[in-house]
Amino acid sequence: MKKNNYNSWLIVSSFLLLFLFANNTTTAQMIIWEEDFETCGNTVNCGGDRYTSTNDFSEDETDTEDYFGRVRASDRVYFLTDMPSTAIIDLENNYTGQNGNFYYAGEDVDDIGGGIGSPDQDDLKELIIPNINIVGGTNLEFRGLFAAGENSPCSMNKYDNFDFIEVYYNVDGAGEVKALCFNADLECNIPGDVSNEPLYFDPNCDGDGGEGTLLTNTFAEFAFSIPTGNSLDLRILIHMDASDEEVAFDYFRVFSDSPIIPVELTSFQAKAEKSGNLLAWTTASEINNDYFLVEKSPNGKEFKTIGRVEGAGTTVTAQKYTFLDETVNSNAVSYYRLKQVDLPEGENNDRKFEYSDVVAVSRSAKENFVAFPNPTTGQVQIDGIGDAPFKIINQVGKTVLSGQAVSSTIDLSTLPNGVYFIHSVVADESIVLRIMKH
Q: Residue 343 CB: number of other CB atoms within 10 A?
């Protein structure tokens, strides 16, 4: 009996463990976007295209306490561009735990001290990251690293009730949402005192960080959820207006349970026209779409680029595109595909790309023939007919003129006014063109 009881217990326990394991498995998230500030991506100072920070600046000193911008962690050198400046920032405590060797930092950001960048005497500084592709993403989450230079809890600290770091998001232009806040722990030292306080994560963004986590000189990760959509904008806003009010941020990422869709191609068609093969395609949305390369092949295997069409960048509005291939041959089949190329990103300016499906156009000789002028008073030019024989048939089916074209020209001046049909045979294919003589 004891053995049977033991076996029963073992079976039940095994099923229970399997149940618990199955119900605790989670889908691994992937990074669909990141900014690590390892290179200058600022549209203002270095011609970058990843973010905009309008008034980055630093005093030109070896121990500056007035700055906002990129800092190299190894030696605290300030970088306005990708070239080091002569400024070295002064810190109460050196930052640790950053990703890579660069981070963004600020201190006393309203100072008018000059020498490097664009000081503006404004105690607010912001960094904007626009047009992040989140098309197709699910369970989206932002994660970033944040730190403060002065990190003593509830003692004579440096941050006041007006000092903060705030992170906002905006999905598809629906309006900004304040998602992450860091504020001073008000009255931490003395009741009624709101100055010289420690800086804390403020989970409910009520302006008092006392209920959150202390921000220290060791970078810590904080996160918030993002609704699904097509395009995400981020804005980081800080207020620090005195010396030793030091803050920093680094390594922003967006995570998703599923991969993103850079360009949603809804149709791609090609058809033969008299002037060439006309390609037409539409997109439902685009993220960071730089351009399309139009590629052509005679056999559907070996493709060559024959043209480029500029993309719309980032948009959630349907776009229509066309391209006319005028280099076509009679009785030929041409194969086409699109190569969609993203804007460059990352420190190496890498470009992502993807191919469309292949479409084919079959042309017959008759599609190359055009008669002009039409109507005509006498001579008519027929592109493509060359010196081929012809006959002219009237509306009752009677042949009224025949001969051989001369340099693609036929003379109808001897015929009375009316409607006629020009018949010819070129490359074993019958051609019929309607023309009016008046």
A: 19
